[in-house]
Amino acid sequence: MPRNQDDSASPLARLERDLQEHAIRQVRLGWGDQHGIVRGKTLTTGEFLSSVETGKDFPSLTIFDTTNHPILYPFSDSNHLDLPGISGLPDVVLLPDPSTYRRLPWLEGTAWVLGDMHLQDGQPDPLCTRQFLKRQIARLNQAGFEPIIGLEVEFHIFRLVDARLGAEQSGNPPAPPAVANLAHGYQYMSENRTDELEDVLAAIRSAMLDMGLPLAGLDAEWGPGQCEITFQPMPALAAADAMLLLRGAVKQLCRRRGCHATFMTLPKIPNALASGWHLHQSLQDIRTGANAFAGDGGPAPLSETGMRYLAGLLSHAAGTSVLTTPTINGYKRYRPDSLAPCHANWGHENRGTMLRIVGARQSGQIHIENRVGEPCANPYLYIASQLIAGLDGIERRLDAGLPASAGYQGGQPRLPRSLMEAIDAFRRDDLLQAALGRHLSTYLVALKEFEVARFLASVTDWEHQEYFEIY
């Protein structure tokens, strides 16, 4: 919802007025699950309003859902999750956050609100990743900083040829849809390529602006049907919420126009190019409002605070990988000379490094761009991982070392090359284990190991082609 109406009113007061003024009949109340996918209920307006103060009952079953497979059950002895208040799959309570209220422009009379998950006794759900991010923001606030985040996200849009909704295609997971290109691609930032996608891109731009999101730009990117969307800097929680809304909005708008949008990193489509999610980040001094990363006259491109923060990101690059790149497919993006990182390194205006310092040394807009993430990462965990690592760098006064003269040169710490390596690095990172706590850490590892086990048990096309005929 645009914020140009009596901003002195409370979020709840603005929400109630907007519901009435725009004849909203139903509200999609949701939360971002462990994968960063919105799960929720569609409530009548009256039912929603009755839940604003006390919350809405919600099945905890969704907490243990994997991406496309039967539930990972918390009462299975093999999982060892030990989750108080959740084992046995009771209902939990979804408490709406009125500040997230938006009207959905593609669905008449419908609004959208995110909530935080709580246990039945009112305590925060230990597996609610949105509340986890809130706690990390509070730690930065206590240190005198407000984290500021800019989103730069790549994704693909294809023409939907066949949704493949036959009964035999509706398993776990279902058959992927058959698609065709909307444009050839490989004319980077070509106006003509963007125009070929303009019908659907215009709908996305319009929806972003109508919902009050600070859209900066949306254009065709590099590969066939690949697009890039950018937003102006936002406070960290607002950025994470916006990412959740963005992914759902893009997929729903495209489907309504006979297209399929995917935030999967590298689709198995001939000539497709891997997509990334670059996270732009800085810290605002709470006392002065100034950019705490702006150069302070020294030889380094960032202030001392900024360089310490950057050093923290480098120190925990391997451990945070399972949060920035949480899928098996995401690691296929890390290839030399691909504009995606392979090493934990940094450079000033160097797109071959993991961390690119963007802007002039004394500029108030100078910031760090982390190029490591994949578009389907959980935004709360991705952003939280950066805040944890960056604050650690500040508190321990870590040294970032020298910038990389070449982004892909040898002798630099390598990033994990698979989800399996990332899980191991995550387990070994004591700071992350302490920050997430035993319950959330054990839960995330169990989910990811279950995903890996399913992958290793499957017979891939490569294996069949390599061995079936010759042996």
UniProtKB/TrEMBL annotation:
Cofactor: Mg(2+)
Cross-referenced InterPro entries: Gln_synt_N, Gln_synt_N_sf, Gln_synth/guanido_kin_cat_dom, Gln_synth_cat_dom
PROSITE patterns: GS_BETA_GRASP (PS51986), GS_CATALYTIC (PS51987)
GO biological process: glutamine biosynthetic process
Keyword terms: ATP-binding, Ligase, Nitrogen fixation, Nucleotide-binding
Domain GS catalytic: 129-471
Chain ranges of the GS beta-grasp domain: 22-122
One GO MF term: ATP binding
Superkingdom of source: Bacteria
Role of this protein: Catalyzes the ATP-dependent biosynthesis of glutamine from glutamate and ammonia.
Homology family: Belongs to the glutamine synthetase family.
Annotated protein name in UniProt: Glutamine synthetase
Source species of the chain: Inquilinus limosus
The organism's taxonomic lineage, starting at the top: Bacteria, Pseudomonadati, Pseudomonadota, Alphaproteobacteria, Rhodospirillales
